[in-house]
Amino acid sequence: MSLRKVFRSRKFSKSFMDVNAAVAPALEGGEKKEEAGEDGNAWSGMLPELLREIIRRVEVEEEQWPQRQNVVACACVCKRWRDIAREIVSEPQNNGKITFPSCLRKPGPRELPNQCLIKRNKKTSTFYLYLALTPSFTDKGKFLLAARRYRCGTHTEYIISLDAEDLSQGSNAYVGKLSSDFLATNFTIYDSQRPHAGAKPSSGRSSRRFASKQISPQVPAGNFEVGQVSYKFNLLKSRGPRRMVCSLKCPTTPSGETSDITSPESDKTQSKDQAAPTCTILKNKAPRWHEHLQCWCLNFHGRVTVASVKNFQLVATVDQSQPGGKGDEDTVLLQFGKVGDDTFTMDYRQPLSAFQAFAICLTSFGTKLACE
């Protein structure tokens, strides 16, 4: 399919259309002269400077949302366009953007966190995660994930799905689940997909995706454990917020952090080196007692407006070998707080993914008598 048809089938920005209109006569002349490139069409023979400017403008226009269909369309024109698109367009796993469903399992951005909203439906015990597109708490944003709470004997499960309507483990939209113990103080996060090469499904009845061993060879019957969340007991009923510790399996590059520049060759190398993910330990940031307000306070930078025992901020422990060790108080990796009766904010960053952050926030819902 020619690029002209692609242009007409997509809604490009005005700035890009101005560039397209400016170069159209030159391109038409190129077609008349039959100056075809190596791929057999005139589009591959476009000047490199002009081609880079076109793809750069398309990338800038799709910084936030919607789906990156225009970027994909450019990369599908020919090999030359695809190579230049790789030079300019940052891969989702490196920039923290959420543009495809697979990005929900990728680490968030490094500098500024992704700001999200969680909407709760108490009647159906359902929770919906949205990517915030504006600073307003009333705007719903872009739907990302949904979860529903089920009571399974002595424990509780949250089924997490890409579909807001189909929330079952047998669905193709099934992403993973969250399983708790009887007291709702210890949680295990399961992923439906293999998190790294060599990972084996968790054994045990609670980790199974289906009652039977196998439904289809294409659909794994088991789940893969990717994290645990524990709430500490408050036996003395001392004043203060809940205390929690999270242990997560986060994939890393050989250098220990997400690379800024990748290539097809480096991707192959990273996929082999990511066979053994590191374990990241998070703990809640210690709040401060406010004498005037007579309450425990944390600085949520305007992202939390209602006081609640569910509110928390998570930081990484300085010594990862000590779960109860001191935390890095300066960098908040995940914060969760209440802004309405059934509306909550969720802001996360690297190394957490949207799926992991959502699962951790789900553990905060529900009564925890042993912790309060």
UniProtKB/TrEMBL annotation:
Residues 194-214, 248-274 are annotated as: Disordered. Residues 250-264 have a biased composition (Polar residues). Residues 104-367 form the Tubby C-terminal domain. It holds the Pfam family Tub. PROSITE patterns: TUB_1, TUB_2. InterPro entries: F-box-like_dom_sf, F-box_dom, Tubby-like_C, Tubby_C, Tubby_C_CS. SUPFAM superfamilies: F-box domain, Tubby C-terminal domain-like. Residues 46-86 form the F-box domain. Belongs to the TUB family. This is Tubby-like F-box protein. The gene is TULP7_1.
